[in-house]
Specification:
By secondary structure, this protein is of the alpha/beta class. The protein is built from 24 helices and 24 strands.
Length: about 725
């Protein structure tokens, strides 16, 4: 059907969708205004517009052949001059953890620059450097003898690249082997990023670097091997800042120009297979053998290496050593034919899955309003816990922030976990992205009602994905309690509108999740046809430290994000109604209000015995918990499980809270006192201040409660079961009766 004939049939639908989106945006604007979020939201939008404008400018310049060097924009140091060998010293060790092996065949200037880059950006771990010249007969090789801190091996006869690497590795003394071409430059932190990956991912067998051209444009972000044995250097000649190149992921292979692996694994596999003598495809074959041994091959984008491609062996496939690339590619295809047929796609197809090695893994798209900031709010902690659980179940996870913003630090934290973050300006339109990639999405986790309203129609139109909705809390109920506490008709009307959005989100999902059982009961009562269940929202590490003791502790601690209206109200009620009763028995007792975004009302509470900290780091927060005698959470309204309560329970510091603070925590009343009146709240605090035995008993009960309720394994089981059951429910609904 011609495109213009299709428009009338879809016009009403498109118009309705446009009006719906506009209405949602107007409601969000009103909500941000009433809750004081508008200035921050406007700052975020300005940043997004600025980023998109910069991106557009670069795209126009590129279109007209004016590709600017990328190196400066990436913040990478300039190419160093060739150093004087006699002035070049590497801080190597006789007891190395890491052995850096640099095979060479002449090209002394490149080797010296490579060594200078290692000297400028050495790894934290003790290391050694072996430079191996394979009988190049280059008259300048003796210059390398003057470099201090390297072991220079000058071969009398030529072994060829492959055998030369294998022989040099036998002389290495480190626990890890780093094979590095001599025509490379090591960028700051590159070697440490590779080493650290083995600690964070114990199943790693090979970890490889991102390769850039000398001008900073991308040469390779891991490799893809197709079913016919042909290969792609993924991301070749592209902008290295694009999201698809910036997260840790499995790769079919990593170029041998910069790969690291444990020495015991290298030796167990026999190093490079001499089937590929003299060179080429030995790195790909090694990757296949590492996977066959049960280990992973990982691309680490944080390890950046500049590679002067073609210096060692040229680029002409018809002559010299380079001619073996074609011959050895056929050897690779023949050896791994069954594996290629089973686990690899046809050439150039299913690119999103192929770059993740995900032909047989589930791909889950997670959508929230913004990139999680787990040190700033509880909802972010929950979303990170869910994504970590999805990764632990073997899934590939993609994250879409609805506001499009890349949050420095927080974006990289997700990428380091192995999550692709689809942020602006590189990915601008959800409609265009889901249209192009929806067929590869198996599951979607939606967070918050307005996120569902803006994305669910497109998800249903362009995917067959199972959709799970996580509400965090009952937004309409929380706002209604605030409206009742503040006597605000505007907030009450907004609560009614939020209920409409929530009910539509519930009906549109295959399964609905909330942290508290009473919230699930509300969903079922309002929408009996909706499948809803509760889920543990936080995954806390097991406590291995000794039980806390009351001695040496003093003062009260209230931890919260004070830009959130319930927390502001709680702080004011605490100072107005509760603290005078406590100070009657303990004059001058210190209170700390610790947390981000304190409002003007909260800042006004500061006094000689009341500290308002503003944002503090996780390390500083842990220090505050270690000093506090009692934690308080005096919430009068709100909804959902409160991280600040769970966190205090986990720390083992006795907490006093309210019914709202304890919401969703079944049986928590056996671990800590819960009271809603000022006198009862003050009395519970005073008891913990006065009686060390009561303090110790409550601290032990709290840690036991958290250990039984909040763990990474519990969250993984629940989230995996949720998607499994949601998929079954969706399948049943699609089968005719």
């Amino acid at each position: 059907m011609p495109k213009d004939e299709n428009r009338p049939a879809l016009a009403p639908f498109r118009g309705a969708r446009f009006l719906r989106r506009q209405a949602t945006r107007i409601r969000k604007l009103a909500y941000w205004t009433m809750t004081g979020q508008l200035p921050r939201q406007l700052r975020d939008r300005r940043e997004q517009i600025r980023a998109r404008w910069d991106h557009l400018t670069e795209a126009v310049l590129l279109r007209f052949g004016r590709r600017k060097p990328m190196r400066d924009r990436l913040g990478l140091p300039p190419t160093p001059p060739t150093p004087d060998p006699e002035k070049l010293t590497l801080p190597t060790s006789d007891a190395p953890v890491l052995s850096i092996v640099i095979p060479t065949y002449g090209q002394v200037d490149y080797t010296l620059r490579c060594l200078a880059s290692i000297a400028a950006h050495p790894p934290r771990m003790a290391f050694e450097v072996l430079v191996v010249d394979d009988a190049s007969r280059d008259p300048r090789v003796p210059e390398l003898r003057a470099v201090s801190g390297i072991r220079l091996i000058e071969r009398a006869g030529n072994l060829g690249f492959l055998r030369s690497c294998n022989d040099a590795a036998k002389q290495a003394r480190g626990e890890y082997l780093f094979l590095l071409n001599n025509d490379t430059e090591v960028m700051p932190g590159a070697v440490d990023a590779l080493l650290d990956t083995f600690t964070s991912h114990p199943a790693a067998g090979i970890v490889g670097a991102r390769l850039l051209y000398p001008d900073g444009w991308q040469q390779e972000a891991g490799g893809i091997v197709w079913r016919d044995g042909s290969a792609w250097n993924y991301g070749h000649n592209d902008d290295p800042r694009r999201p698809q190149y910036n997260y840790l992921r499995d790769a079919d292979y990593i170029s041998g120009a910069a790969i690291m692996l444990p020495m015991d694994l290298w030796r167990a596999l026999g190093g490079f297979d001499e089937h590929y003598i003299p060179a080429y495809c030995e790195d790909s074959d090694l990757a296949f053998r590492v996977r066959a041994a049960g280990r992973r091959v990982l691309y680490q984008p944080s390890s950046v290496i500049i590679h002067h491609e073609g210096v060692s062996h040229g680029t002409d496939l018809s002559q010299g050593l380079k001619a073996h690339q074609v011959i050895n590619a056929e050897k690779l295809r023949a050896r791994w034919a069954l594996t290629l047929a089973a686990d690899h796609a046809e050439s150039g197809t299913r690119l999103m899955r192929s770059r993740d090695r995900a032909l047989h893994r589930r791909v889950t798209l997670v959508i929230d309003n913004n990139i999680p900031q787990p040190d700033r709010d509880a909802g972010s902690r929950t979303m990170v816990a869910f994504m970590e659980a999805l990764l632990a179940s073997g899934r590939v996870v993609k994250f879409w922030p609805l506001n499009g913003l890349r949050m420095p630090g927080y974006t990289e934290a997700l990428q380091a976990r192995g999550i692709e973050v689809l942020h602006s300006p590189w990915v601008r339109s959800f409609t265009s992205w889901i249209t192009a990639n929806g067929a590869e999405i198996d599951e979607v986790l939606l967070s918050r009602p307005h996120v569902s309203a803006e994305t669910l129609p497109e998800i249903r139109a362009h995917t067959q994905a199972t959709v799970v909705f996580y509400g965090h809390d009952l937004h309409h109920a929380r706002l209604r309690r605030e409206a009742e506490a503040t006597k605000s008709p505007a907030l009450l009307a907004e609560a009614d509108r939020l209920l409409v959005d929530e009910r539509e989100a519930w009906r549109g999902a295959d399964l609905v999740l909330y942290p508290a059982a009473d919230e699930v009961a509300v969903v079922r009562a309002l929408e009996p046809s909706v499948e809803a269940r509760s889920i543990t929202p936080y995954a806390l590490p097991a406590q291995t430290s000794p039980p806390p003791v009351p001695e040496g502790r003093e003062g009260l601690l209230f931890v919260a994000g004070f830009g959130h209206p319930p927390n502001e109200d709680a702080a004011c009620w605490l100072l107005d109604a509760v603290m005078p009763l406590i100070r009657a028995k303990h004059p001058g007792i210190a209170l700390t209000l610790a947390g981000s975004n304190p409002t003007e009302r909260v800042r006004a509470l500061a006094a000689p015995d009341v500290e308002v900290t503003g944002f503090i780091s996780d390390a500083e927060l842990a220090r505050r918990y270690a000093r506090a005698r009692v934690v308080v959470c005096p919430l009068r309204y709100g909804a959902g499980i409160k991280l600040k309560v769970v966190e205090a329970l986990h720390q083992g510091v006795p907490i006093v809270t309210t019914t709202t603070g304890a919401q969703g925590l079944a049986h928590v009343e056996h671990a800590c006192p819960i009271t809603d009146d000022a006198a009862g709240f003050a009395q519970a605090v005073l008891r913990l201040l006065a009686d060390d035995d009561v303090w110790r008993a409550q601290a032990a009960a709290q840690r036991e409660f958290v250990g039984e309720t909040f763990s990474a394994e519990a969250v993984r089981r629940m989230i995996e079961a949720a998607f499994t059951d949601a998929a079954s429910r969706r399948l049943s609904a699609s089968v005719p009766a």
